[in-house]
Design a protein that fits this description.
- This protein is mainly α and 126 residues long.
- The protein contains four helices and no strands.
- It has helices at 3-23, 41-51, 58-93, 101-125.
- It is elongated.
- The chain starts with a helix and ends with a helix.
Amino acid sequence: MEKNKLKELVKQVMFEYLEEMSTSGAAGGYLTKYAFKSKNLNEARYSTFKKEVKTRTPQQQLHEGVKAIQRRLDEINRLVEFTTRMKDELKENNEGIIYLERTCKSLNKINEKIQEINTKINNLTE
């Protein structure tokens, strides 16, 4: 997948997420697509996530977080399926596919991140 297409997909997902959050009244209406355009993005998101506990019970907030994870995993799964399908189509048209070195490194990093996420999810269920 081209870098620009991936950037656009990430922008679209973030815009939809921020729009969804702003319509739910989270963080007093400060969530716009430019609200947290800083290096401190992770802290800003967590503080927003935590502030929502004031309007919901902790169990409801945890449930909403799990639903958000599920939605994003579904999107990632779809993207992986499309990429796999594209690879298969390219493989049928050509004799073989040669991966760029950077692509291999990226795939390895993705695999590591997935393993880290799996560990964190296992900790959630304990």
